[in-house]
């Protein structure tokens, strides 16, 4: 299949491009020099549409987003331009050339008040500007494209790209002392395995709304301990220069849900769910880091 990937230099985009090629797909990386989603005007639409039709594209995966959750509180218009109107532009361009679109969204569309993981049938209630812009993107994509996959993810990490876990390893090795959240529940998800899950979903062609995170739950504080334990089992000691603190001690401009655990009900019901428990994925990620000499 010919697949265009927007955000090819982002954390998930890098892994998607690698995994698509490994599965034998033809990848067209579309970065912001080709399509800047903060200018979702008619010219951008035509440019993207021409690019997609010129490569005979069959699937467009949009990982590009304004992902600065705290920054979106101030730059709210920019967040909505990229995450809502920009996402709609991608969906329209895909639809006009007869391609399906896979759009990435977030666990933050929920408020975290439920005492169980959220499934695709629960009602979102975003708490931050970032989350509202992502929810708007979901709605615009669903109405602009006749064939869409909307995939909510959360707690992503992986090699290359900016993310909490890769910077955690770097900062622990540099001897920095860190305060880590011991309250908020998350299901950390390795981008490589998520990329494979997304490709499987798109290959199957069952359009709709999906949740896709690793199994289980933890906090970033407990995750950091697990990371040190697993690194140690691989013969690499990381200093545990971190303490666990309450969410309230980590003041940040944007409000985040206290739990954003997702139930991947739709993937399960369709027999497509393939993501492992988060700790198993962490072990595989660290093994990859070790093999490439980054641990
Ligand atoms: N990271 C998480 O834990 C997490 C959690 C929930 C949902 N998500 C969602 O998952 C998706 C992938 O996230 P990620 O972690 O891979 O994000 P990321 O590493 O921050 O990458 C974002 C990508 O978007 C591109 N981009 C930003 N603004 C753009 C613009 N105006 N025009 C075109 N491209 C633009 C960036 O391009 P440059 O490389 O040029 O900057 C970058 O390649 C996003 O939709 C995000 O909202 C992520």
Main beta sheet = 6 strands, parallel
Instruction: Provide a count of the helices.
Output: 10
Number of strands: 10
Q: Could you list the spans in which at least 5 consecutive residues all have pLDDT below 50? A: none
- Give the C-alpha Rg: 19 Å
Shape: globular
Structural class call reads: alpha/beta
Q: Mean pLDDT, rounded to whole units?
A: 96
- CATH topology category name of the domain at 2-156 and 189-215 and 259-275: Rossmann fold
**By CATH's scheme, which homologous superfamily of the domain at 2-156 and 189-215 and 259-275 applies?**
NAD(P)-binding Rossmann-like Domain
Which sequence of strands runs across the widest sheet?
A: 2-1-3-4-5-9
H-E string: EHEHEHHEHEEHEEHEHEHH
Query: What's the CATH class label of the domain at 2-156 and 189-215 and 259-275?
Result: Alpha Beta
| Bound ions, cofactors and other small molecules, one mention each | NADP nicotinamide-adenine-dinucleotide phosphate
CATH architecture of the domain at 2-156 and 189-215 and 259-275: 3-Layer(aba) Sandwich
Report, as a whole number of angstroms, the end-to-end distance.
35 Å
Fraction of residues in helix: 40-55%
Beta-strand proportion = 5-15%
General description of the model:
It is globular, with a radius of gyration of 19 Å. With 295 residues, the chain is of the alpha/beta class. The mean pLDDT is 96. The protein has helices at 11-22, 42-54, 71-74, 76-96, 129-144, 164-173, 191-204, 220-233, 265-269, 278-291; strands spanning 2-6, 26-30, 59-62, 100-106, 148-153, 156-157, 178-181, 189-190, 208-211, 242-245. A six-stranded parallel beta sheet has the order 2-1-3-4-5-9, sandwiched between helices. A two-stranded parallel sheet has the order 6-8. The relative contact order is 0.15. Strand 4 (100-106), helix 5 and strand 5 form a beta-alpha-beta unit. 42% of the residues lie in helices and 15% in strands. The chain has a domain at 2-156 and 189-215 and 259-275: NAD(P)-binding Rossmann-like Domain (Rossmann fold, 3-Layer(aba) Sandwich). The structure holds NADP nicotinamide-adenine-dinucleotide phosphate (NAP).
């Amino acid at each position: 299949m010919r697949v265009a990937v927007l955000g090819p230099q982002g954390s998930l985009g890098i892994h998607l491009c690698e995994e698509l090629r490994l599965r034998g797909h033809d990848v067209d990386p579309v970065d912001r020099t080709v399509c800047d989603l903060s200018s979702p005007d008619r010219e951008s639409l035509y440019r993207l549409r021409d690019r997609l039709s010129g490569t005979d594209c069959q699937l467009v995966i949009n990982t590009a987003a304004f992902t600065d959750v705290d920054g979106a509180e101030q730059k709210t218009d920019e967040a909505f331009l990229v995450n809502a109107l920009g996402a709609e532009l991608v969906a329209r361009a895909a639809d006009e050339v007869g391609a399906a679109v896979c759009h990435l969204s977030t666990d933050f569309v929920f408020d975290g008040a439920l005492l169980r993981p959220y499934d695709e049938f629960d009602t979102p209630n975003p708490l931050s500007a970032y989350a509202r812009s992502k929810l708007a993107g979901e709605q615009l994509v669903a109405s602009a494209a006749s064939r869409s996959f909307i995939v909510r993810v959360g707690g992503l990490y992986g090699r290359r790209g900016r993310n909490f876990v890769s910077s955690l390893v770097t900062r622990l090795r540099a001897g920095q002392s860190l305060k880590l959240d011991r309250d908020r529940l998350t299901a950390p998800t390795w981008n490589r395995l998520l990329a494979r899950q997304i490709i499987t979903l798109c290959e199957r062609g069952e359009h709709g709304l999906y949740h896709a995170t690793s199994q289980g739950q933890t906090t970033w504080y407990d995750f950091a301990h697990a990371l040190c334990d697993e690194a140690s089992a691989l013969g690499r000691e990381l200093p545990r220069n971190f303490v666990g603190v309450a969410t309230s001690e980590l003041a940040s401009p944007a409000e985040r849900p206290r739990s954003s655990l997702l139930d991947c009900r739709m993937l399960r019901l369709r027999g497509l769910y393939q993501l492992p428990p988060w700790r198993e994925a962490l072990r595989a990620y660290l093994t990859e880091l070790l093999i490439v000499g980054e641990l």
